[in-house]
Amino acid sequence: MGFSLPQHGSQAQQGAQTARFAAELEQAGADSLWVGERLIAAVDPTVGYAGKDTIPDEFNAVLDPFLLLGVAAAVTERVRLGTNVLIAPLHRPVLLARSLTSLDVMSGGRLVPGFGIGWSPEEYEAAGVPFTHRGARLDETLDALEAIWTTDPASYRGQFVTVPAHRSELKPVQRPRPPIWLGAFSAAGLARIGQRGDGWLPVAPVPGPPGWGKQLLKLRAVVDRAAESAGRDPETIGTIVRVNVAAGTDPALIAQTIEQVAADTGFDDFFVDLMYVTTSVDAMLETAGGLLDRLR
């Protein structure tokens, strides 16, 4: 059982408490700590968040994901440190590789890097990256990371991404490279996971529609079929469920949802996003502690 770090909205204003939050949750028995990525929150978004026309107020203030994980790495020894998700096409592969390699080295091999393609045209504009061909850019970025992480000298040349030949002596602790986790719900995204991913990052909303666990199983079946078609063993592809909790939700319902999804799917790795639950780091710790007591 894992939890999001205090990264967004009012929680971001309390970023100085990140080290205490991470250390206390590890001591309480948490298995993982997580960050996400928002580059900007557009005033007049072309595309809203989660099928809506707007962007949540919590995205108006966001701490840097790499810095947050670095702080958490420095004060913990055991918990996995995950990204759900980094918008990979927004990053130059050499800079992304340097940050992720540094985190894996500094944490002793505890990095769980999760990637996606994002949904905001304005974020792509702000990064100076075309919004088109996002899937292809993701694939090439992952190919470039693979080259940087596994070869020395390293280089990569694709249609959208180029990495000049260079010395690449510093490698991640995890060999041959950190696992590639991908967040996706579309047919193309699920197929990509089956073809090349090491893990899938689905979402369970709370409150959520009845039978959500069975819907997740249907989506996971798409991943498995793609893996088999690619000559891969689906059993080698993991699943970590992100639990998105709406504001005002009773913690008991969070626990009940996790228990139900676990029973329906057999998935046993979850982390709870507390972004909307409270503005206080102390309240986040209290909620997380109660969930750990019930669900461990």
TrEMBL record:
It comes from the Bacteria. NCBIfam families: F420_Rv2161c (TIGR03619). Its EC number is 1.-.-.-. Coiled coil: none annotated. This is TIGR03619 family F420-dependent LLM class oxidoreductase. Transmembrane segments: none annotated. SUPFAM superfamilies: Bacterial luciferase-like. GO terms for molecular function: oxidoreductase activity. Residues 8-258 form the Luciferase-like domain. The keyword Glycosyltransferase does not apply.
